[in-house]
Design goal:
By secondary structure, the protein is mostly helical. The chain has one domain. The chain has 10 helices and no strands. The longest helix is centred in the middle third of the chain and has 37 residues. It starts with 22 loop residues before the first helix and ends in a 5-residue tail after the last helix. Keywords: Membrane, Transmembrane, Transmembrane helix. It comes from Jiangella asiatica. One of its GO terms (cellular component) is plasma membrane. Pfam families: ABC2_membrane_4 (PF12730).
Length: 274
């Protein structure tokens, strides 16, 4: 007769804990998506090329007239002139960071991996603005040096150590960083690239000039508070329009408008289906 021996029950293997989704991992994911998309490279190349190239061209063409004794144009407004057009690329990049995921369906994968939507929006904003702040500052310096070279040949060059010049060079990076966040807010809000870019261009470039047609003090303040007019002042050594807000005041207004747009976009982002 044999005696049955009971084998001790083997404890089930403990499941490997999934790595915790931290904000750092979200930043890494957003940075990977941003730098591996071809549109990012082309958009940033256009930003640098337009900003530096057009500044050099306008200063080359206008330096002779600016040096004339009867000239009343603000010379400092020309040394970052190309940024007026390069900023369009920063706006488009901001829109694409959000809208491209909707058009490709990638947003479903993103939200499946990170269901909490506010941290996702915060990570997108942080990566985008960080990149544009660095590249925008470098581009502003390059634009200043390129344009100032031709102005200096006519004896009207500016000193880069001048406080207003230093403010404008740092301000160029700050402005395009917040402008990119503005585009991101539009992209999240509208979820359509063409529509968001159209609204962004109209708001920054078109409406800001059309409000000059509104009569009285209300029209004057409306013109000052439009996002493009308020924000761009910080990126220029001097202003073509002396009626605009002071540079830091205008930038604070623009940053507040962008924060409000992102808050509205984030609120909808957290409640709408992907």
């Amino acid at each position: 007769m044999t005696t049955a021996t009971l084998e001790p029950a083997t404890a089930p293997a403990r499941a490997t804990a999934a790595p915790r989704l931290t904000f750092g991992r979200l930043l890494d994911a957003e940075w990977t998506k941003l730098r591996t998309v071809r549109s990012t490279v082309w958009t940033l190349t256009a930003f640098v090329t337009l900003s530096v190239g057009l500044t050099a061209l306008i200063c080359l063409a206008a330096a002779g007239e600016l040096s004339a004794a009867d000239n009343d144009e603000p010379v400092g407004a020309f040394v970052t002139w190309g940024l007026l057009f390069g900023q369009l690329a920063a706006l488009v990049l901001g829109v694409l960071v959000a809208s491209a995921e909707y058009s490709s369906g990638m947003i479903r994968t993103t939200l499946a991996a990170a269901p909490r939507r506010w941290p996702v929006l915060a990570a997108k904003t942080t990566v985008l603005t960080g990149l544009l702040l660095v590249l925008g500052t470098i581009t502003s310096v390059a634009s200043f040096l390129a344009g100032n070279y031709f102005l200096s040949r006519e004896g009207i060059g500016l000193e880069i150590s001048d406080p207003e010049a230093l403010r404008a060079l740092l301000g160029g990076g700050l402005y395009v960083a917040v402008l990119g966040a503005f585009g991101l807010g539009l992209g999240v809000l509208m979820r359509h690239t063409a529509g968001a870019v159209t609204v962004g261009i109209a708001t920054i470039f078109v409406v800001g000039n059309l409000v000059n047609l509104v009569p009285g003090a209300f029209g004057e303040w409306l013109m000052k508070l439009m996002p493009g007019n308020a924000g761009s002042a910080i990126a220029n050594v001097e202003q073509f329009n002396p009626e605009l807000l002071e540079p830091w005041v205008g930038f604070a207004v623009f940053a507040g408008e962008t924060a409000l747009l992102l808050a509205v976009a984030g609120w909808l982002f957290a409640r709408r289906d992907a």
